[in-house]
């Protein structure tokens, strides 16, 4: 981060801190906060991508993050499991808390803390990133056996269960190269679920898919949302957000502009930027 | 096909073109084989015309010389395996953020690539004994070849590791895998697949370079040829046999390498 100006903690756009606290109006299935993003700033060189983001996600809550490309939503998601190192701020997932520490090399204890966060936050990628040299089942049991130390039998049992959940039990012995894009992403979801994380992070999971394959992936995700999986989804699928989200978060220029229930943010936005963004979407 | 007719047969003109192309290709291959046979034949005929070629000697000694190919292959197989292991560690160290590891592996690569293989062979066999390290010829030869090829292959592996898409590493990290596990289970297996053709190339090159260890009395192909040749003043015949066997070995391994490469190109497995 050489050459980057030290970020200004004091001055933060007011909208970024406008927390989402209508505690009373929360649906009954929503639980205690499990992911806390606290004052995250992220610089890529001189480029100030995240400008002070606070976000709390509660148990069994499905949060959809929308916004233009370049608004920082993917970077935010990647900061949560430290695939991107935040410049300032702190992340807490299921009571594991890691502060940003960009100037110092992470020591062993730090790296272990980050790994603990990753164990609690499964991630889905735009490009699926299945391991091409392993078949579907091996993809799903690799981390449970080698990282969590589960027995092979137990891991296979869990993996088969989650492959059933995504509707691909019969593909367990196939290699990824023989699957369609939609199937690959569903296997990736099963692989993430096999680690039994506390929260799933989806980074534009359908953006690399042919239009006719998007539905099957969104279907699985919607089922997961409705069955109480905690998830944070960066997406451009507005209809999906409307159907499956408990809360929609709109980001622009590295800050959260507005957040709330989907019917409010998507149908009756309070901020001009949100209206602008949504209108552009409708025009397309 | 743009033609609305349901016929599967191509129109006559197209069939003619295809046939003529096929003929041209056949003719090319025929000429190719003809030139090879003619040139090699002419070469051999010229040799025989000197009336210095003792075929009887060649028949008698061929088994002894060809027997050296076993040693050549054995030494090369062991060396390529050791070199591959060295190269994996070398490549990981070269990409490491640890200054000490980086320095060691950079020095290794620079030193080995900056000195002749023959000097390295001599050093290990003739110079190390002065330091109290005495190795037999075969282990010394294997050590020299492994050490030398390991350095060149370090660069190959580094490129292979870097060619594995970054998303693979990220996916593994996101699953909570520690760094070493990410490398061992996700990155390296894919990198090895990428570099297998290059390893094959190096193996073929090594078969030829292994002739150098005849100088430290490893009883491989060239050593046996020289031994038999000088004994009866039949060096020409002996070297002809040795050269033919080297050539044959490289042709055979190139063929397998081509097939392997084609198989790798087909799928992800």
How would you describe this structure to a colleague?
The complex is a heterodimer of chains A (284) and B (269). Chain A is of the alpha/beta class and 284 residues long. Chain A has a single domain (31-283), classed as 3-Layer(aba) Sandwich (Rossmann fold), CATH 3.40.50.300. Chain A has 10 helices and 10 strands. By secondary structure, chain B is mainly alpha-helical. Chain B has a single domain, classed as MetI-like fold, CATH 1.10.3720.10. Helices cover 80% and strands 0% of the residues of chain B. The longest helix of chain B is centred in the N-terminal third of the chain and has 40 residues, at 55-94. The radius of gyration of chain B is 25 Å and the shape is flat. The chains are: A alpha/beta (284), B mainly alpha (269). The A-B interface holds A 81, 83, 111, 115-116, 118-119, 121-123, 125, 127, 129-133, 142-143, 146-148, 175-177, 188, 191-192, 195 and B 165, 167-168, 170-179, 181, 185-186, 189-190, 193, 267-269.
Which terms would index this structure?
heterodimer; A: 284 residues; alpha/beta; Rossmann fold; six-stranded mixed β-sheet; four-stranded antiparallel β-sheet; 10 strands; 37% helix; globular; disordered N terminus; B: 269 residues; mainly alpha; MetI-like fold; flat
Number of helices of chain B: 9
Pick out the low-confidence regions of chain A.
Answer: 1-19
What's the average pLDDT of chain B? 90
Task: Give me the count of strands of chain A.
Answer: 10
Q: For the record, give the distance between the C-alpha atoms at the N and C termini of chain A, rounded to a whole number.
A: 38 Å
**If you consult CATH, what is the topology of chain A?**
Rossmann fold
The main sheet of chain A comes to:
6 strands, mixed
Q: What is the number of E strands of chain B?
A: 0
Number of domains as seen in the coordinates of chain B: 1
Q: Could you state the oligomeric state of the chains shown?
A: heterodimer
**Any idea what the shape of chain B is?**
flat
N-to-C terminal Cα separation of chain B, in Å? Answer: 34 Å
Question: How many separate helices of chain A?
Answer: 10
Helix content of chain B: over 70%
Instruction: Estimate the strand proportion of chain A.
Output: 15-25%
Categorize the overall geometry of chain A: globular
Q: Architecture of chain A in CATH?
A: 3-Layer(aba) Sandwich
CATH architecture of chain B: Orthogonal Bundle
How much of the sequence lies in strands of chain B comes to under 5%
Please identify the structural class of chain A as seen in this structure. alpha/beta
